[in-house]
Structure formats: C-alpha cells, structure tokens
Amino acid sequence: MSTPAISVRNLTKEFAIPFKKERFVAVRDLSLEVPEGEVYGLLGPNGSGKSTTMKVILGLVSPTSGSTSIFGWDSRQVESRENVGFLPENPYFYKFLTGLETLLFFGKLCGLSGARLRERAHFLLKLVGLENAAERRLGGFSKGMLQRIGMAQALIQNPRLLVLDEPTAGVDPAGSREIRDLILEFKAQGITVLLCSHLLGQVQEVCDRVGILHRGRLVREGRIEDLVTIQNQTQLVLENASPELLSDLQRQVEAAGARLLSETKAQADLERFFLQVTEAEASRHSEVRLSSDRS
Amino acid sequence: MKSASSAHRLFSGGRVAALAHNTLRELIRMRIFYFLLLFALLVIGSSLFTVQFTFQEQFQVLKDVGLGAISLFSWLLGLLCTALLIPKDLEDRTLYTILAKPVPRFEYLLGKLLGVFLVIAAAVGLMGLLFLGVLALREQQVLAETARTTPPEQLADALRVVRQSAFQWNLIPGILLIYAKALVCATLTLLISTFASSSVFTVLVSVVVYVMGHLQGIARDYWLAGGEASPLVKLMVGLVALVFPDLQLFNVVDEIAAGKAVSAVLLWKVSGFGMLYTVIYLLLAQAFFSQKEL
Asked: Which end of chain B is more exposed for a tag (fewer CB within 10 A), N or C?
C-alpha cells in the first residue's frame, strides 16, 4: 500500500489556559488518513479543532500526544513541507510586495530560482487571473485578489499536497467558482487536497471524502455519497410533464406500494442563478460598449 | 512539471538570503531612512552653531555629537526594526505561510536578523559618511582660514595642529564599534521578541536591558571592590554579566572621540565580545523560537 499523503494518528492537542490549572483540549484522539490524490474535506463548526489539526499537520504547533505525517515524513521535520502548499484563512502577505515579488519570494523559500522561478510565477499569476496585478503592491489588493495570490503562492513549488483553509472566504461567487474549478483541476492532476470550508455545497462538489469534527473529536467520516445519500429514496426530475402524466405516475407509485414524498417545481440554485445574471449583464455591457465605440 | 527537489538541505544560504533581502526591502519601503535627515540636521547644525568656539572645541563638539548620534540612531533603529518584525509576522499570520514552506525556524530568525543587520549597516555607513564629510569640510575651512591668518613661519605647525584635532583614522574603527554595539542590542531584542507577547513589551524590556547593560559594569566594580565580596555576591554578579551585556565596554568610542590613542588589541577585544554576545543571543533566540507554538 502506498504512503498516504496525510496521516494523523491518535492526535491530541491541549493548550494551557493562562493563570488556570486546567487545559483546553482543542483536538482529542484524532486519527485520519488521506490517500494520495484524494480531496478530503475537514468540516466542523467554529472552534471544533480544524485549524489546530491543520497547524499540527503543517508543523506549526506540536502535538501533545500522537503524531502526524505528510508523505511519510513526521510533521515536525522540515522535509515534510517540501511538497506542501498552504493557503491560510484570510491570508495576509507582505503588503509592501507586488504580486510578482510575493511569488518570487515564496518560490525562493522553496529552493526555486532564476528563469524557472520567474516562468512559474508568471504562469501562476495567469492561472489565478492576476497577470494584470503582477506589478501592483498587495496593500491595494481586494480580499478576493489576496485569496488568489495566496492560492498562487501555495502552488509555487508545484506541491503534491495542498492544504486550503477556507479558500473561498471573502471571494465573490464568480471567484469562488473559479477556485472550485481549480480544485477540481488539481484533483484531475492527482494533487491531494485537504480542504477546510464552511461552504458545504462547495465541499460536496469537490471532495471525495469528508470528516466532521466536533469539539475536537472526529464524529463522522466517509465518502460524501455514503454520508448524504438516502438509500431508500429516489429523485426524478421531469421536463414538460403534463398534469395527467404526473397523476398517472402518482397512481402507479401508490399501486406499487411506494410513497411520493414531495413534488415541487425544480429550481436552479442561487449561485448558478447569480452567475447567469451577472455574466449576462457583463456581456450586454461589453456589447453596448462595442457598438458605441463603432458609432 | 516535476515536483520540487525532495533532497532538502538542512541549511540553505539561498533561503536565508531571500528572507534577509525581503526584510531589508520591507524596512526600506517603510521609509525608515527618513530619520537620516534628522541626523544630517544634528551634525550640520552642530558644525554651524559652534563657529564662535576655538577650532579644537568645534571639532570636539562635532565628533561628540556625530558619534553619539550614530550610536543612538543605530541602536534605536536596530531596536525598533527587530521588535516589530516577528510579532508583526505573527499577528499578520505571514509567519504561517513562511514556516509552512520548507523553511527551518533557525533560517527564518537568521534571515530576519541579517536583514536588520544590513539596514543598520546601511544607516551607519550613510551616517558615518555624512559625519566624516562634514568633519572634512569643516577641517578644510579651518585650514584655509589658518593659512590666511597665520604668519608663514608658524604656518606648518598651525596646520599640523588643526589636522591633528580634526580627522583621525581611528574614527573609522570607532564607527565600526558603534555598529557592533547596535548588532548586540538588535540580537538581544530579537531574543526578547521570541518570547514576548507584543512589540511594546519587547521594546520596553530591551530598553531596560540596554540601561542595565550600561550600569552593570559600574555595579560589578562596586560589589567586587576590595576583593571582600561573598561567593553569593560573586555568583549574582556573574549571572548578571551573563544575561546583560557589558555595554560599558563600547565606551571606548568616547575615548576615540576625545582623540585618545586606543590600542588595536582593545578594539579587537571589544569587537570579539560583541560577536560572542551576538552569537549567544541568536542561539538562545532559536532555543525559544523552536519551541514556540504558532
């Protein structure tokens, strides 16, 4: 069996509370494994221990007991971070650096240099749609742009594992969809992703498996379809169905001893609707501009 | 594309250089070098407002003010820059992103510190050049005036006296010692910032240690005078000397400013002392920082 991308074994992390005897237990006896190439979603309410788990995996804090490893390297060893890209929640980078300088800086920290690094930085700026902001300082970036540059720096050394903490926080729906598409692209390339997000719809779209943390314990874990599929229910979506057909169907369902639980008009989800409207508006504006330019 | 090399080097000069360069760039873009204008005003002002004094007094004031200001500004610069850097990286979470890369914590500390050292070097270099430039200019003015007002048979002696009281070569090692002192203080501040909870705390503790560093030599001489000190007092004095650097040693710069001859051996001794403390503080900073929970 190949080495898992992430392995967490009986991890417990406690923090001392200043001026008090008792200790705060952020993570309790957590064990999980993420095989290479999988997109794993770590879910849980605020304060459930997601960020602490990520920090232990990345070697930023040390475990009280248990251990974590990345591709077989113990997280406490620097080597474990050779193949990891990390995007923290609400990333703050050096505001005095430009987009390009930021990527060059992080690239040098990963041992890259020269033309290869520049090439990679320009490629990533284009990938995250910031090629026009290469020479702009991060102090003037919007939250969404910071998130994108954060994604680009996480990818700088072409890592085999990406750890993304709320990657779409503060990003508009179009940007959020782009990030989701990027994650799906990483998945297609065989990159392992550990994703922490509150946007459950998005997690459902991109993750192979999820783990749900509550008060530092892993309360559920499994493949998304296994967790959310209701085995004894089936959903049908019909187009152009007449009222007669619907009542026929209902009769047949009852005759077969099954039960029709709900019948509603199908709805597009709000995100898709929002994107359709904004994209249509954007193309209408560009057409108006083009025609006024011509006249 | 192939993944980054898996052969991780335990120490990489490239990574340290990237961190040092970034720190230097950060401090330059914070426009800290504007303080040099203040220094220029001080030095030029002290040369302008002393024209009614004898030329010996003028040169002495200029040297005292110049070297004193270089010492004060380089210490302050090192203190403030170092006290801001790590807590700021921690508060802004920039530290997470850096240490989530394959960067050992020691390299991060060293890179930050070297960046500050470079900034102090640039500042001391610029201040030194400005100070020596003003001194040379004043010397030329006094020489020209002396040549105009002194009878020809006394001119050679008069010019020699002017030259002796103006620029002396040991001013340059004097400036280097000021730099060494600023490095010791900056590294000490780095050590404090690895366990301090805020920049303000770091600055305050660092100032206290600076003051104690100047007083501990006097205290030691007082306690150990007469050779009757108890072993406990000796131990206490030894401990204080270990924790607080004896910054009085750097007062050799005052003697240089006063035009006294200072032996090369003493200069090397003080420089060696500075280097030793810098290394000890850096290692202690690493010991704290390596255990720090981020």
From this structure: N
pLDDT band at B2 (very low <50, low <70, confident <90, very high): very low
Count of C-beta atoms within a 10 Å radius of residue B85: 23
Q: Nearest-CA neighbor of A136 among A149, A155, A151?
A: A149
Q: What is the bridge-based pairing of β-strands A39-43 and A209-214?
A: parallel
Task: Give the other-Cβ count within 10 Å of B292's Cβ.
Answer: 15
What average pLDDT score do residues A19-39 get?
A: 91
What is the enclosing helix (H) or strand (E) of A218?
strand A217-223
Contacts of B145 by beta carbon, 8 Å cutoff, 6+ apart: none
Q: Are A71 and A160 in contact (CB under 8 A)?
A: yes
B145 and B139 Cβ atoms separated by less than 8 Å: no
Write out pLDDT tens, residues B176-190: 999 999 999 999 999
Asked if A5 and A191 count as a contact pair (C-beta separation under 8 A), the reply is no
DSSP structure class, residue A64: S
Label residue B34 exposed, middle or buried (CB < 10 Å: 0-12, 13-18, 19+).
exposed
Which residues does chain A have within 8 Å of residue B5's beta carbon, measured at their own beta carbons?
82, 111
Q: What is the H or E stretch that residue A85 is in? A: strand A84-87
Angle at B289 between CA B285 and CA B290, to 5 degrees: 120
Mind telling me how many Å the CA of A101 is from chain B's nearest CA?
Answer: 10
Query: Within 13 A of B164's CA, how many CA atoms are on the CB side?
Result: 8
Contact A160 B26 (CB under 8 A): no
Q: Is B99 on the interface with A (CB under 8 A)?
A: yes
The three-state DSSP-derived secondary structure of A221-251 is: EEEHHHHHCCCCCCCCCCCCCCHHHHHHHHH
Tell me if chain B has a CB within 8 Å of the CB of A106: yes
The residues in A 66-85 lying below 8 A from B, measured between CB atoms, are: 78-79, 81-84
What pLDDT does residue B226 have?
A: 60
Angstrom distance (rounded) from CA B51 to CA A115:
58
Cross-chain CB nearest to B3 (options A78, A160, A163): A160
CA–CA distance from B250 to each of B184, B217, B238 (Å)? 11, 11, 19
Three-state secondary structure call for residue A29: strand
Name which of A130, A116, A219 is nearest A158 in CA terms: A116
Span B66-78, pLDDT tens digits: 888 899 999 999 9
Model pLDDT, residue A290: 66
Interface touch A60/B14, C-beta < 8 Å: no
Average pLDDT over residues B137-163: 83
Angstrom distance (rounded) from CA A265 to CA A237: 9
pLDDT tens digit sequence for A165-197? 988 877 788 888 888 888 999 999 999 999 988
Q: Are B24 and B119 in contact (CB under 8 A)?
A: yes
Q: Letter for the amino acid at A93?
A: F
In this predicted structure, the answer to whether residue B119 has a pLDDT above a threshold of 80 is yes
DSSP-derived 3-state class of residue A125: helix
pTM: 0.83
* Contact across the interface for B4 and A91, Cβ inside 8 Å: no
Per the CB < 8 A criterion, the answer to whether B146 and B155 are in contact is yes
